[in-house]
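Notes from the pairing session

We agreed to fold both candidates in a single pass and log them together. This is the raw record for the first candidate, unedited. Please don't reformat it; downstream parsing expects exactly this layout.

Candidate A
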Amino acid sequence: MTDIIDLTQTFEDGMPGFRMKGPDGVPRAFTASVQPFLTHEASAPNYADGVSFEITEVQFQTSIGTYLDSPRHRYPGRADIADLPLASLILDGVVVDGRAATPERPLGVAELPPAESLRGKAVLIRFGWDRHWGTDAYFRYPIVDRAGLAHLRDADIGLFGVDTINADDSADLERPAHTWFLDSGIHIVENLRGLEALGDRPFRFFAIPLKVRAAAAFPVRAFAEVR
């Protein structure tokens, strides 16, 4: 029997987003707006009695919710979201238990699967950090250390996913995960949730965005088909 496991944070009005310093050095929080553009009440006079429609307006920055980074996110002129082949977004996956990691102690090579078992796979790190979604604790998160990231890059994985806000340490201004992976054609998905539901069962991972030209990143519906 096949199970479909949703791994996506709910996209909604006022949802948790990201923080960025403005020109004045003051951090600013970003979120999404989801509002009616046309309400049922407003549209009703245009149709027969009892008939009405709603149209929704959504405004957001693309790095919000559970989202996918394209190479353009890190490298000017490289492939954008619309350029990514669907086959590269549907991959056999493996979940790595990273719950022993903390913001002070990253996950290392010794805690990652051997390289020969990872080629072409979606490697999803279960830090369990989705439990902090919507709190300040979510912004201090564990990572995979540089040696571990190099191990995954050299293993030629297909995609790297985390249940944290960032695949990189925010204090590391070289951003090795984004720099190495996106240069190597390895996709990145951030803000996953519910990885515990996958257990140790084999699965295929899907991370499908809209086909948006010139978008460097975009929210996805991430899910797993568990066999």
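Candidate B (folded immediately after A)
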Amino acid sequence: MERTENIALEFLKDSHLEILTTFELIEDQKKFTTMPNELLTNADGQYSIVITHKNKPVGFFLLHTTSRVMKYTENKHALLLTSLSINNKEQGKGYASIGMSMLTPFIKSAFPMYNEIVLAVNHKNAPAEKLYKKVGFVDTAKRIEGPLGEQLIMSLKVT
């Protein structure tokens, strides 16, 4: 596994675009997320975050501060995490675990008014659920129906 000083969470930059538009996932993973090249236009309250290794994009996700967050929690100081993906050729190197473990300090620095991160993970997506639990997310016992069936709502307190 790579040392964490080579891995960072960064807001989307123009220099990331070329690699992000070439991200690939296996078919089984594509059904659970949206590819970065479909999400590279920032909307109000939606922030594109890039996981980099030695300044090269290896992963991507979105953080939301919009009213959409309230579908998952009643906490007005929560962020919603969506669309996590790690480029297929970069998988298995620990980037998802390390990137997600960096969420708390990143949120404290970039979004200091927020104290929770919530997400929905399809109950059929066991690898993602395992990853989120590994980095400290807990199952809230709340469920919603998603496009592919039941989704578990998970939460990470930012303290």
